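USER: Fancy drafting a protein?

ASSISTANT:
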Amino acid sequence: MHLWLRSAERVLVQVGQFEARDFGELFDRTNALPWEDWLPENAYFPVQGRSVRSQLHSTPDCQAIVKKAIVERLKQKYQKVWFQENGPTFTIEVSLLKDRATLTIDTTGPGLHKRGYRKQAGEAPLKETLAAALIQLSYWNSSRMLLDPFCGSGTIPIEAALIGRNLAPGLHRTFAAEEWPNIPRELWQQARDEALAVAKPKLDAPIVGSDIDADVLKLARHHAILAGVG
């Protein structure tokens, strides 16, 4: 899934969802969730948060309560009183909407718009995920020519080329979950091998980008090479 998502930004694992109108309820219900199924003893697990139209409106306090509840749960399960948190990253988010809490773990790491090919950007850069979404919503398909007369650093032509050649956009990056011990590393390599096997060797129709800025065009060509479509 991670390799192939073109317009999504993150892949989250939902650990639990429940009503929480006070801090005691938030603590108890967070503590009751099976965090040990995901977090090893050495897990580094920062907690992020947001709250919209909820009685628990102080995001920092919600983050602290969730962190404490998870630590207390892991203390019981691992029979330890201190965790070094020097292992793989499991970023946890507590999201409160109308007094309903959703607790998730981020499997992604840096957002999925970071494909790995854009090292620099011109003025007003377009996110790769947004560029891919615009292409997917358009009438273009891989059998038709695509022309971007204001291509800037090349994001739209590159994303179109990735689609046209059936190249997985996540091939040139890594994901947070690759470091998780409960997901075998060989599965990630297998997914990459399968993605490479279905890629087309060339485009069915030309994709052309142009721009008035010669320097930014050089950057676009460089990005295309890094993306494997140059």
Observations:
- The two ends are 25 Å apart (CA to CA).
- Residues 128-227 form a domain with the Rossmann fold fold (CATH 3.40.50.150).
- The chain has six helices and six strands.
- The longest strand covers residues 12-19.
